[in-house]
Write a structure and sequence with these properties.
There is one protein chain. It is built from nine helices and seven strands, in the order ααββαββαβααβααβα. It is of the alpha/beta class. It has a domain of 175 residues: Vaccinia Virus protein VP39 (Rossmann fold). Helix 4 links the parallel strand 4 and strand 5. The N terminus and C terminus are likely disordered.
């Protein structure tokens, strides 16, 4: 797990920067009902996406457990940012019309708790929007993927779409839409992928935990590919939207 307090200063430059953030924000807003007036962006990080979740009469708040990230987000978005654990949000029940979680659920050991908290702070009829299958989105059928695919599995991913849908159902939320957007600037190169493998990243991809022998073998094969520093196509990320069941009074209107 990264130390996000230390990563805050350089985080945006290593994650696709503004183009990726703009694509993500536009896709999220496309799934938020027009009548929504309050939006909580959980795991907001530096606020690069959060600050772009803008439209008339929509008030936005961020939340992150990292002080470094939250401090940077507060400076950037000019709106409240709560310092708190997304598995135990320091916010009251039914406070928001919408909750967003972009590139968050794959990082949290207990994604069920995060989804449950999103449901708790949503008002009846509110919408939760989250990225799912984040790591799988990096499989763009490139020559890099041809080498990696036989050795990896996303079955245990914390943000697997069917698992998140099940967590949402447990929290009284039902699917209402989905969207896809490009991860601009996140296309992988053979050299960078090999270096990441040897550094122990992507361990969650592999059934054997990405042991050193597997990583070394794959790195050696990646080193034989042409265009060692040429980016392959950008990943394609998926958002799912869920609506919280209306209470008896609202449902009877």
């Amino acid at each position: 797990m990264l130390d996000y307090d230390r990563e805050a200063a350089a985080y945006d430059a290593t994650r696709g920067g503004v183009p990726r953030a703009e694509a993500a924000a536009a896709a999220v807003l496309g799934l938020i009902p027009a009548q929504a007036r309050t939006l909580l962006d959980i795991g907001c990080g530096t606020g690069l996406v959060t600050t772009r979740l803008r439209r008339p009469r929509l008030r936005v708040m961020g939340c992150d457990r990292s002080y470094g990230m939250a401090h940077k987000a507060a400076d950037r978005i000019g709106a409240p940012v709560v310092l708190g654990d997304v598995r135990r949000l320091p916010l009251r029940d039914g406070a928001f019309d919408a909750v967003s979680a972009v590139w968050l659920l794959h990082l949290v050991p207990d994604s069920a708790a995060v989804v449950a908290e999103a449901a708790r702070v949503l008002r009846p009829g509110g919408v939760f929007v989250a990225t799912v299958d984040k790591d799988a989105g990096h499989d763009v059928d490139s020559d890099i993927d041809t080498i990696l695919r036989p050795h990896r599995s996303f079955a245990a991913a914390r943000d697997r779409a069917d698992a998140i849908e099940a967590h949402a159902a447990a929290g009284g939320m039902r699917p209402v839409g989905r969207a896809r957007f490009a991860g601009h600037g996140q296309g992988r190169t053979p050299r960078a992928t090999a270096e990441a493998l040897l550094a122990g990243r992507f361990r969650s991809w592999f059934p054997d935990g990405g042991d050193s022998a597997t990583a070394r073998e794959l790195a050696d094969r990646l080193a034989l590919l042409p265009g060692q520093d040429t980016r392959r196509p950008d990943p394609s990320y998926v958002l799912h939207a869920f609506r919280k069941d209306a209470g008896p009074a609202e449902g009877a209107r």
